[in-house]
Amino acid sequence: MKIIVQKFGGTSVADVSRMKSAAKRAIDVHTSGSKVIVVVSARGRMTDELLELAYEINDNPSTRELDMLLSTGEQMSSALMAMAIHSLGYPAVSFVGRQVGITTDSFHTKARIVDINADRIIEELSKNKIVVVAGYQGVDKNDNITTLGRGGSDTSAVALAALLKADICDIYTDVDGIYTADPRIVPKARKRNKISYDEILELASMGAQVVHVRAVEFAKKYNVPIQVRSSFNNDKGTLICKEVSEMENIVVSGATITKNEAKITIIGVPDKPGQAAKIFQELAKENINVDMIIQNISAHGLADVTFTVLKDDLPLALDTTERIKREIKAKEIVADDKIAKLSVVGIGMRTHCGIAEKMFCALSDEKINIQMISTSEIKISCVIEENQAEKALNAVHSAFELNKEE
Ligand code: ADP
Ligand code: ASP
Ligand code: MG
User: Fold this and answer.
1) Is a pLDDT exceeding 90 seen at residue 299?
2) So where does substrate get bound (predicted)?
């Protein structure tokens, strides 16, 4: 018997009629004889509204209490979804994460799933019920409610699909698949029929919010096929799956921008062994994630070290680098939070050359200055000025002719 996980994002359960059409999709699968688990997000802008409310009451809310609050959005959706299914005459039961044993670590607002005990889900499925689970949440070992980071309902769905060995995890959203770039920014972006785990992993980590990064990590590890599709039509969407040889022919499969990083430069670092180790050890001790790093050797035995961190971590990163500066006797710290990172991704990069050149030329033609560059086997990223991000994304999208057929 087939097992299918269906995840509905915020817009797909935003109001009564959408909730009912989502319920019908679950019922269709159920009546065809498959087992179905529905994972729901909070309705519409609910999570944003709850966050706004929290910050109105307290400008520095405790992350434990934030998780208590934010998890309620998904709880509400799950109960309403079960009621919608009942109203159409079918059996369903809703659960919050804690009730279906989704155990996480204790990093509130960005917890990671460590274990799931699916006994309760399996029991309800065996009673022929549609099981509805509130996404985005779990519980830590001390019985505190946790959330999985923004967009985390995808991860709940894929983790359940992995555990239950589901045949597919359908992610229903407000676009009809994964595009070569965010269609809200690049009007000419084109839908991909298939994309590999590695490509979407890079795209999602570099800013394409269409699927949660952790969800793809789970999917890749446990080989769960994901179909990203629209909740407004019956089109097939985009299949995220293992790499197949024909994918090698697609040199660049997508492009994306993120504005969630800031840049810090430590000027005048004495150019001797151990300095970089000292800087990045201290940042790591503060749990600050560093992304790109460059070092310029300047004259008189002094170097400049530039790196990027998440904007949310900037205040702590600046305090830490000020302290390091004094210890290593560097000269000055300069920060810039008006940057964007533009990335192009494709597994064909492993076997094709000239990709970086093409990207740099496209940016140069638009008079866009490149501040930092980093590459991986299947990705090239450039840091540019924030207000040029959208123009840069469109330019690169055209340069690689991503609007053309696969
Ligand atoms: P949901 O609430 O259903 O989880 P999200 O807002 O998290 O939906 O994700 C869907 C959005 O992701 C789309 O509306 C789209 O603007 C954005 N997006 C970003 N990059 C891409 C891409 N490459 N392909 C498709 N959508 C993308
Ligand atoms: N409701 C949460 C959010 O808005 C989780 C999700 O939708 O996946 O981020
Ligand atoms: Mg999402």
Assistant:
1) no
2) 47, 74
